[in-house]
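Re: your question from the hallway

Yes, I did run it. Sequences:
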Amino acid sequence: MKVSLFITCLCDTFTPDVGKDTVELLERFGCEVDFPAGQTCCGQPAYNSGYKSESIKAMKQMIKAFEQAEYVVGPSGSCVHMLKEYPKVLADEPEWAKRARKLADKTFELTQFLVDVLKVEDVGSTFTGTATYHPSCHMTRLLGVKDAPRILLENVKGLNLIELPMKEDCCGFGGTFAVKNSHISGQMVQEKAEHIEETKADYLIGGDMGCVMNMGGRLRRNGQEVKFLHIAQVLNTQ
Amino acid sequence: MSIKIGHKLYAERIQDGLNNAFMRKAVSSAQGRFRSGRLKAAEELGDWEDWRTLGEEIRSHTMENLDYYLHQLSEQVEKRGGTVFFAETAKEANEYIQEIAKKRQAKKVVKSKSMVTEEIGLNEALEKSGCEVVESDLGEWILQLDEDPPSHIVTPALHKNKEQIRETFRKKKGYTGSDDPVELAAFAREQLRQDFLEADIGVTGCNFAVAESGAITLVTNEGNARMVTSLPDTQISVMGMERIVPTWEDLEVVVSLLTRAAVGQKLTSYITALTGTRLEDEVDGPEDFHLVIVDNGRSKILGTEFQSALHCIRCAACINACPVYRHVGGHSYGSIYPGPIGAVLTPLLDGYDDHKDLPYASTLCAACTEACPVKIPLHEHLIRHREIIVEREKMTTKAEKMMMMGFAKWASTPAAYKLSTKMARTTLKPWTKEEYIEKGPGPMKGWTEQRDFPAPSKERFRDWYQKREQRSDQ
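Structure:
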């Protein structure tokens, strides 16, 4: 199976390890992974801030970059959901909307692809430690990926998973919200950090790097010793 | 009151909210109760998603045919002895009601809970005409005594505790008892009983008007609406023009959704349906009944991409699910309609000038959309508002516009993207310490005020990938 990796601009720039783990995981299950170098950002920062015409420029670039792909897989529910919104956003340009539809239909979030397409529930990994998982809002509510991360994590040997209190609550990231409404965002992520503390977990696992950076950044600011990881980093262990 | 509350700017209101630790604790615990109540009630009902779909269909069908159902409703109300008045504006609605008060030489008006009367500022209008206005819903009565503007559309006093309420009763009504809720409620009941008996006019809102019969239905827990509508000789019900269902069957669906989504109840203590004036063989009910149907900007929403905002059944499930509301409280929205639905409705009804910040007071986490019993895509409406604020109203800063234009260029030009991500680490070097930025420059400031920002990686993913490809080629 040929898979084109949609790295997301955050993982490309800040956490390349998440990309490496994603590639290796997909290869573990027989995928042939390529990386279309023309990919940039999905356009969400502009789109969610109301700059639709600016975001469309990013979207068209992404559509071009992945035109040849058989499957597109990305380690982010939020960015993958943005790709899936392209046909709606480009509705006024029928030609582009058609190309956008093709992209949307072949794009999957990593855990969704593993469980729903590759039919893998146990990746055969071992990760020793106590962890809690934050289910990101866009991944669960908008993309509808609720069970896949849990199924995969529950099958990781050595991993003691503790339920995060109020786990459905947003961590306060919200893209530009974290900067524009930083005071509210700060209180939201503080509440999340307190819930993480309650679990006494050593690791915080998330499926979206934006949320993980937000929560991780606050944990570090608070001096909390919880390590934070993307789910791909946990799944790609031996 | 009108839709807008007070004159403080958004940033000040937010700061006030965030600094009010007491309010935040009260709101957070109330939200928790309502939220778990809603989820439990939905589970008990079973097929919740099917009910939501049905609710959405009923609301959508009604809005598509609103002219027809309004016509049917007014015919039915008049057939049963009532008078219908269509008010295009708040002013028209108030003037009509003032005129009735004048004719009846009314001195006292009792009210049951109604957000639309807050929206049009009816209390102030009636007070100007020399009437004493008494809110009879317990929460609303507390707010009225406290001169506190609305901060929640269903449970108005959720941000207050019993000690505060005792203080209010002491100061304003000479209460001398304890802060025991039963004793407090008994005192309120005793005080209000007198008001019911003395009132010349009873004013209610309207949860739903049933078009096929002309009935006005009220969903309450305290029974006060029954007193409001059975004791005074004149009854005036005020409804937003979208608060209508075609049939009794449809009413069953939307009320089932409303009580569960609002407070986690299967049914409220009272669901009252009032049809027309007192008949000759009846012992109670008004001699005179007026239904005031308020447009006040609603018809402008019809036929637009925001039409589904009119589907709202005012349950506040979105407010109770919203993590932003939890931290800032209702007053921060500066509108009588707070929370996600408030952020959607307020700019539609009252314009962007005073409310352009509201659509941004959301992380777009979609907890509101998920909670809505009639499936209004609230978070998508917030994005549409943002588009209008940016592209049509041009209300954003130049700096932001420049940044977003830069973003578009960057994200549509792979060479620019590659160069900038390569340079990112070096560019941020002066602010970086131990692989983190604790005090960032420019647009990063908001982020680093609240949490640390990671330094860009030494090697990007694409560099690693390229090297790996080269290795495998050799």
